[in-house]
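Hey all, sorry for the wall of text incoming. These are the two entities for the joint prediction.
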Amino acid sequence: GAVVSQHPSWVICKSGTSVKIECRSLDFQATTMFWYRQFPKQSLMLMATSNEGSKATYEQGVEKDKFLINHASLTLSTLTVTSAHPEDSSFYICSASGLAGGYNTGELFFGEGSRLTVL
Amino acid sequence: AQSVSQHNHHVILSEAASLELGCNYSYGGTVNLFWYVQYPGQHLQLLLKYFSGDPLVKGIKGFEAEFIKSKFSFNLRKPSVQWSDTAEYFCAVISSASKIIFGSGTRLSIRP
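and here's what came out:
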């Protein structure tokens, strides 16, 4: 089946630094990628939707200048947490919606997630 | 606004018991419905999905779900659970533009 790879799995950084998380679709073209944040014992919260070659659409309450999303190719999207603070510590997950036979199947494939800890 | 409700936050069952997890959504148009599972320490995986056709959908590992349009529900069922079914289960809806909305999740614990 389709695979989405997320890197890094774990990252620890100092407050004020920026962290980049990569999300790659390994065997399919990801026309749309989604970034989520998951708090402990809670559901996934959609942060933004990105389509290849265009600007990301952010959900209400998500700071676009803080969470920079780039979807430059059909296989790679990146999330950069700029000037990270301890409250940004969380589990970030990406998912990709792919093409099969030219049609978007509507099914999502998830990355393994990236746990960010900001000291 | 679109929303997905999972009313059972934590379900504890013994092995071989039957399972039903509730999922209700609020959206009047055409929807695609999903159940995802997250085993401890692993990423989300698709259990089953409904796009159209037979409202009773069979998924992996013996799971099934029934889409009842009049009730805006898509409950997940399994006739006999196993210890390995211990996981977090998320119901999800895609309504338009591939935007997916997740429920808050139900933690399933199975007693050996």
